[in-house]
Amino acid sequence: MLLAVIAACEIGFWVLLAAGMIARYGFRLPRLGMALLMAVPLVDVVMLVASVIDIRLGGEPSFKHSLAAIFIGVSVGFGHQTLKWADGWAAYRFAGGPRPVKLRKGTRAKALQERHGWYRHVLAYGVGVGVMVALGLLSGQGYDALLGPAWTWTIVLVIDGFVSFSYGGSLEEDVDEDEPCMVEQKQNV
């Protein structure tokens, strides 16, 4: 049952995201689009509540609970960035907005972008592992079974850190004025 809820929530995330963009840019209904986009985090609430209910009804802590925790953590860490990414591309494709900038390797802006991506990964990891531990404590059966995927995730996080900090060498160098840099777009997300 919990696996079905997890799958439905993951599908629901992308459906709400797409529906929000279609309403906002396809039908020119920005308020409806905003309402749909604001509903995206509710998907994580549903997943968390389903996990807690499953544990409280005597479900044995297992990989499915860890999977829910990972999805929740990743959504917290990367959800806003994903919404901004989708909004930027939808604005470009359907509303004549500026094309989102892809930063070039070797630039200070790219190095900063990669480091910030790793910081978001650390946030996702902290939230995900925190949910795993909380579900384990809530079950009264410990959290050893839930933390199995956390060890693999730890290795991925460390590798991501090495890769993220390998960009650009030094952040103290000046950026060439001819280099494209990330432009903050003021949009109502």
Brief overview, please?
The chain is mainly α.
Question: What does this protein structure show overall?
Answer:
The protein has 189 residues and is an all-alpha fold. 71% of the residues lie in helices and 0% in strands. The chain is built from six helices and no strands. The two termini are 34 Å apart. The model is unreliable at 172-189 (pLDDT under 50).
Distance between the termini: 34 Å
Give the DSSP E fraction (strand runs of 2 or more residues). under 5%
**Element order: H for helix, E for strand:** HHHHHH
Rg, rounded, reads: 19 Å
How many distinct beta strands?
0
Estimate percent helicity: over 70%
Number of helices: 6
Uncertain stretches of 5 or more adjacent residues? 172-189
Biggest sheet record: none
Overall pLDDT score: 89
Shape call: flat
Structural class: mainly alpha
What does the secondary structure layout of this molecule look like, with pairings?
Blueprint: H1 2-26, H2 30-38, H3 40-56, H4 63-95, H5 108-139, H6 148-165
Structural key phrases:
about 70% helix, about 0% strand, mainly alpha, flat, single chain, 6 helices, disordered C terminus, about 190 residues
